[in-house]
């Protein structure tokens, strides 16, 4: 049996070419599909041009601030890209990413498509897979008196929904997204992919309880609104008729895809708000309802 041909080493990549998913570093990266390993290593996987580009842009943006008092360079920033594998085809298509990664001190290796297939989460990989440091922040760092719009996800279990809501929060200019300890891991590969790079734009808090989040948000002057269609609830489109003021600084709380917010969670909020249904649909899915609520607040808060 003949040995499979190996791609010629691209000049912008380091050799030898990785030909098997069983290589040591790729095997370590593949472990990051498991939440327990992500939590232990404080690292996560990214995949594709968009995610890699956003990771590099994020590090370039925050790197100048990371210096010690004597002027020496500080440690790698949160969210830093530490490992990158690229196929020869991807390297030819995205030379600017390789240059930026090399300038940032990222370990870059060329890999055969078959080798990356064991790590990639997508069926049709773009030939770029990286490992990043976690970048979540402390709750007290984002729930300040300057925060105007905060999005909280409680008991959200679908990674695609979580990632989509985070992307919407970024687009609407939210100050932070909080994922409670009862929600799916924001570093789940499907969640990361659904954010389309927004994970590197908006501060994210993880692993906290909803009562703690609500208590601190209220102490910082935010009104706490639960997105919940069960009566009694304010109508999102005519809030003034029931005395709801969406021009106030707001913390939105969104619940589980199937059952919404349990009564105990809803009771933590100052008020419940329902998205009106004008047609015959029974309801909106979580990501859609959250998008409507977040943008309604962003519009009302706009100067």
Automatic annotation (TrEMBL):
SMART domains: SpoU_sub_bind. Keywords: Methyltransferase, Transferase. One of its GO terms (biological process) is methylation. The keyword DNA repair does not apply. One of its GO terms (cellular component) is cytoplasm. Residues 45-138 form the RNA 2-O ribose methyltransferase substrate binding domain. GO terms for molecular function: RNA binding; RNA methyltransferase activity. PANTHER family: RRNA METHYLTRANSFERASE 3 (PTHR43191), RRNA METHYLTRANSFERASE 3, MITOCHONDRIAL (PTHR43191:SF2). Belongs to the class IV-like SAM-binding methyltransferase superfamily. RNA methyltransferase TrmH family. This is RNA methyltransferase. It comes from Brevibacterium rongguiense.
């Amino acid at each position: 049996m003949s040995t499979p041909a190996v791609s010629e080493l691209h000049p912008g990549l380091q050799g030898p070419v990785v030909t098997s998913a069983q290589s040591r570093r790729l095997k370590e990266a593949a472990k990051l599909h498991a939440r327990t390993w992500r939590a232990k290593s404080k690292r996560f996987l990214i995949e594709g041009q968009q995610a890699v580009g956003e990771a590099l842009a994020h590090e370039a943006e925050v790197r100048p601030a990371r210096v010690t008092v004597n002027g020496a360079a500080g440690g790698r920033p949160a969210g830093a890209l530490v490992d990158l594998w690229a196929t020869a085809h991807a390297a030819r298509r995205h030379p600017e990413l390789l240059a930026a990664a090399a300038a940032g001190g990222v370990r870059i290796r060329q890999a055969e498509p078959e080798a990356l297939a064991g790590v990639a989460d997508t069926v049709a990989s773009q030939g770029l897979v990286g490992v990043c440091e976690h970048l979540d922040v402390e709750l007290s760092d984002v729930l300040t008196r300057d925060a105007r719009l905060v999005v909280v996800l409680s008991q959200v279990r679908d990674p695609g929904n979580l990632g989509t809501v985070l992307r919407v929060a970024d687009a609407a200019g939210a100050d932070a997204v909080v994922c409670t300890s009862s929600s799916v891991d924001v570093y789940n590969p499907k969640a990361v992919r659904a954010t389309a790079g927004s994970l590197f734009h908006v501060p994210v808090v993880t692993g906290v309880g909803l009562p703690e989040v609500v208590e601190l948000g209220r102490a910082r002057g935010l009104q706490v609104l639960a997105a919940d269609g069960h009566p009694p609830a304010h109508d999102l489109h005519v809030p003034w008729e029931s005395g709801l003021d969406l021009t106030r600084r707001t913390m939105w709380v969104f619940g589980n895809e199937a059952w919404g917010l349990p009564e105990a969670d809803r009771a933590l909020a100052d008020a419940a708000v329902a998205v009106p249904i004008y047609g015959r649909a029974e309801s909106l899915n979580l990501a859609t309802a959250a998008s409507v609520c977040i943008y309604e607040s962003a519009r009302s808060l706009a100067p």
